[in-house]
Design brief:
The complex is a heterotrimer of chains A (93), B (516) and C (331). Chain B is mainly α and 516 residues long. In chain B, 61% of the residues lie in helices and 3% in strands. Chain B has 20 helices and four strands. In chain C, 70% of the residues lie in helices and 0% in strands. Classes of the chains: A alpha+beta (93), B mainly alpha (516), C mainly alpha (331).
């Protein structure tokens, strides 16, 4: 296919509960960019974006079940691959 | 069994498989085709339902837990917003008209969606997709109800919302979203999920619930912000489900490709036509704006659908041909729509206004190619007529497209000054369309679209007079129609003349006086 | 903005949406249940007939023989709308979660007599398929029923049954290895004890009248199965023999049924009250499916009760018939 690299995104509500998640995403995804709009943050990344449970746990200081993301998630794009340790969004699978 | 056996630790995927598809079995006392009679007539071939990949893996216990947490938060904010007269913190009373479009145009569709997903959640013979569809059916009930609840407090103070049930069923402009959804729901299960998962969830809700709702937050509507973002968190699951079904069909059999391509072509266009309303909400109805329709379109259609179609290319899917026209219309859509609603304001159940000088400057900056050239002169002319006390208003109902039901106001693509005219004859009757694309949809299933109930036709056929007697000497068809439609003078017309505007100013004045 | 908005006293123009006010009175404040339920489904003209059922409108009251003057007479005594429903279930889910954690952390399953544990597995694990069948049969009403009142309640029931099927799966994983689930499926598909019940469930899959399915599944089959399996066998017989751990992890089911039966009872009562002829239809359906349910459940009860199954069934039936009499159903 063409050389265009598709972008995945994850929109989260911007609140205290997501602060640690956003920091974790920042740590694990150097290529991601963060766009703050009223009430939300839109995180985009070329190709793939990973939310790692371990990193989030370090940031929030407690056990974290990745399915808790559903509470503050607004939207996403890309294929979703979810297991106990990571949620990966990507266009190549 | 005296020795304690160490239990295997199951991963999320393994465990979820046991919790869902492990529950099903192949019936033998009844034939499988009788148990699932509806998932084959569309011609989609599925050889192995077990190849289905679950996108999200929520078991009911987790679902109840997380959804309950969302609901607790949502209702706490709705209660606080209502108790604190939150509507008076809005940027401007004009904003309330977007709320009216939500309750009239969208909330009833959410209920339709609940039913549509219950239907396919019963009919797909694969357990995995069935469970996901059931969950979506439940989520859609949530969306219908949270919208009704969030807007309930607005309805107590402002007009145009009290009759949303009746208006959604009968008011001509609301047949645009309604017929879109009924079109999908009356199709087979695979077409339904393609239509809704792709056109409605992936394209439409992303535009409504992300940039528009962020705009609602910016205009001070915490209630809408909360239900909007909270609903979209479910939509993230839904669009993933819809796209997974599309890929699943394409992976299962090469014969599915032309069918899926046809549906994507059709529903991209159908979806874009409904988005006309959202474009107008975004550019004209938000008093304070975060981003223009064209900007939102770039992100959520060009970028996001571009990625999707690049991904589907491996199966042979191509970008729908209508997209060329959609791109040409991008910088016209919201302006044309607002002009149309301005002229037809006597039959709307929300208020309209002309953009202020400041609004128009913003629109020229966002639409440098089109606004000053085609639309500013019109708005300035209409403003002059308003000043002179003779505001312009259309006298007759417009001709509507037989498929999308939007008035046939669209220009020829690339030629903004010529109105597009498309029509064909079916069974001796002439049918009109807004575009080549709606005509193609009609010609593929004419027996379906001839059934459409177009507002103007219904009026001329006498179907909108209720109990009034058209043979009576003093019969006034317009008055009878207005009474039947339950459209009051307070619901319609110019914002500046409205009771809503007057009350908002009065109440806000009281609030400011209290402070002193 | 420095406004003291709470102290502004402004007069609302109306108390609820027009269609809600028409039902409860314009002066009444509507509950969230009422606003979220009444008239949510389109009535009146619809644009297109469904390709999948061209003989009917998309929403069509004729998909059952039940007739109603008012389809919103199907009120939920629990007044569940989505929010109150998930919040109620999340609380029950939390209780169930602690029960599973308690049993697991203290290895109570291992402390159970082997024979008892095997009986529990043999009895309970195939029931996950029965619950899934019940879920499907309620999905039928959610899809083809008429009016938001009944489709909403039926969908909650369908989701609850899916939840129960998943709790039963977890019991299998708690008491045994994942392979136990496969053994139970084999039993469900082939053991004689389960075949009449499986046949009944599959017959309901093809039944077209959604209200008949609702009566057969929710009132009759579940109305006998829950008191028999969870009430009589799990909570009494197994608990007495050292299986209280099993009773603990089945608590959700017992509590759920006490609540859900109030819902189905209210639907049946509403149908009979609304239109007299509905009573005869319902009584006929109850007679038809009651006989089949009894003979289908007896061999299942025998897995735990042996020869005592019949006597236990008689007790359950006596209570069930009292319940029917209260509803005005003469079976």
């Amino acid at each position: 296919m063409s050389e265009v690299k598709s972008t995945v995104f994850l929109c989260l509500q911007a609140n205290d509960e997501t602060r640690g998640v956003i920091e974790a995403i920042e740590r694990d995804n150097e290529h991601a960019s963060f766009d703050y709009q009223p009430g939300m943050v839109r995180i985009t990344a070329p190709g793939t974006l990973t939310v790692r449970r371990e990193t989030v746990e370090e940031e929030v200081g407690r056990e974290f079940d990745l399915q808790e993301l559903h509470i503050n998630m607004i939207s996403l794009s890309g294929h979703v691959d979810e297991d106990d340790d990571a949620l990966v969004l990507s266009w190549d699978r | 069994m005296d020795i304690a056996v160490t239990k295997k630790k199951l991963g999320l995927k393994e465990r979820y498989a046991l919790m869902t598809r492990g529950l099903g079995w192949e019936p033998t006392y009844q034939s499988v085709d009788d148990v699932f009679p509806m998932d084959s007539f569309e011609g989609i071939k599925i050889h192995d339902w077990d190849a289905w990949e679950d996108p999200f893996r929520l078991t009911m216990d987790a679902y109840w837990k997380y959804q309950a947490e969302k609901e607790r938060k949502l209702y706490a904010i709705l209660d606080a917003f209502a108790q604190g007269n939150g509507h008076l913190t809005l940027s401007d009373a004009r904003y309330i008209n977007t709320v009216k479009l939500f309750i009239n145009g969208l909330a009833p569709l959410e209920y339709m969606s609940h039913r549509g997903f219950a239907h396919i959640g019963r009919q797909f013979r694969g357990v995995g997709p069935r469970v996901a569809c059931m969950m979506q059916s439940l989520d859609e009930m949530r969306h219908a109800q949270t919208q009704v609840h969030a807007i309930s407090n607005y309805n107590r103070y402002y007009d145009g919302m009290a009759n949303f049930r009746h208006h959604h069923t009968y008011l001509p402009y609301l047949q645009v979203p309604r017929s879109f959804f009924e079109d999908a729901a009356s199709g087979g299960p695979f077409e339904f999920i393609t239509a809704i998962g792709f056109a409605f969830e992936y394209v439409l809700t992303n535009l409504v619930f992300v940039p528009f709702i962020s705009g609602a937050a910016y205009n001070g509507d915490m209630g809408a912000m909360t239900f909007g973002f909270s609903a979209q968190s479910d939509e993230a699951r839904h669009m993933t489900l819809g796209l997974e079904v599309i890929k699943f069909m394409l992976e299962q059999d090469p014969d599915n490709l032309p069918i899926v391509q046809k549906w994507l072509n059709k529903w991209t266009w159908r979806g874009v036509r409904v988005l006309t309303l959202v474009a107008m909400m975004q550019d004209y109805m938000l008093p304070k704006r975060v981003m223009s329709w064209a900007e939102a379109w770039e992100i959520y259609f060009e970028e996001n659908c571009g990625a999707l179609f690049r991904d589907l290319a491996r199966y042979g899917i191509v970008m729908p041909p209508c997209v060329e026209q959609v791109r040409k219309e991008r910088d016209h859509l919201s302006h044309m729509a607002w002009c149309q609603f301005y002229q037809a304001r006597g039959t709307n159940n929300f208020h309209v206004w002309l953009p202020s000088k400041e609004d128009m400057d913003w629109l020229s900056a966002k639409y440098p190619e089109t606004f000053d050239q085609y639309y500013r002169p019109r708005f300035e002319y209409w403003a002059k007529m308003e000043e002179e006390g003779t505001p312009f208003e259309a006298a007759t109902p417009p001709q509507q497209c037989q498929v999308c039901q939007i008035p046939t106001i669209f220009p020829v693509a690339g030629d903004p000054l010529t109105r597009a005219e498309h029509s064909c004859t079916h069974d001796g009757e002439r049918f009109h369309f807004c575009s080549q694309w709606c005509q193609e949809i009609f010609e593929d299933e004419p027996e379906k679209y001839v059934q459409a109930k177009l507002g103007a036709h219904e009026l001329y056929k006498g179907n909108l007079f209720g109990d009034a007697d058209p043979t009576a000497e003093d019969f006034d068809p317009m008055a009878a129609a207005m009474a039947f439609l339950k459209l009051t003078p307070e619901d319609s017309g110019l914002h500046s003349d409205s009771r809503d505007a007057a009350n908002f100013d009065l109440w806000r004045g009281l609030a400011k006086a209290n402070e002193a | 903005m420095q406004m003291d908005l709470k102290t502004v006293n402004i007069e609302p123009k109306r108390r609820s949406y027009a269609h809600v006010a028409a039902r409860i009175g314009a002066e009444k404040l509507a509950s969230r249940y009422q606003e979220g339920t009444f008239d949510m489904q389109v009535e009146g003209p619809q644009h297109y007939r469904p390709l999948w059922d061209p003989a009917h409108d998309y929403f069509d009251p004729d998909r059952t023989r039940i007739r109603m003057q008012d389809w919103y007479a199907f009120k939920d005594p629990r007044q569940y709308y989505y929010g109150s429903y998930v919040i109620a279930r999340s609380r029950q889910q939390e209780t169930a979660e602690s029960a599973f954690a308690f049993v697991e952390s203290r290895s109570l399953a291992d402390a159970m007599p082997t024979e008892l544990r095997e009986t529990a597995l043999k009895l309970l694990l195939p029931l996950r398929h029965v619950a899934w069948g019940s879920s499907m049969n309620n999905e039928t009403t959610a899809a083809y029923g008429y009016g938001a009142a009944i489709t909403q309640g039926a969908l909650y029931y369908a989701m609850d049954q899916l939840g129960i099927a998943q709790f039963l799966t977890r019991i299998g994983l708690l008491l045994d290895q994942p392979e136990a689930l496969e053994t139970a499926r084999e039993a469900w598909l082939h053991d004689e004890a389960w075949q009449p019940l499986r046949r009944l469930v599959e017959d309901l899959f093809v039944e077209k009248d959604w209200f008949e399915v609702l009566v057969a599944q929710d009132l009759v089959l579940d109305g006998l199965l829950y008191p028999l399996i969870y009430g009589a066998i799990v909570d009494n017989v197994l608990a007495m023999q050292g299986g209280s751990a099993v009773a603990m992890v089945c608590q959700f089911q017992s509590e759920w049924h006490a609540e859900a039966s109030k819902w189905i009872d209210a639907q049946v009562k509403a149908a009979i009250k609304d239109t007299g002829a509905n009573g005869d239809l319902i009584a006929g359906w109850v007679r038809k499916w009651r006989a089949r349910a009894v003979s289908a459940l007896l061999p299942v009860a025998a897995i735990a009760l042996g020869d005592g199954a019949e006597e236990q069934m008689d007790e359950v039936l006596a209570d069930f018939d009292k319940r029917l009499a209260k509803l005005g159903v003469s079976a």
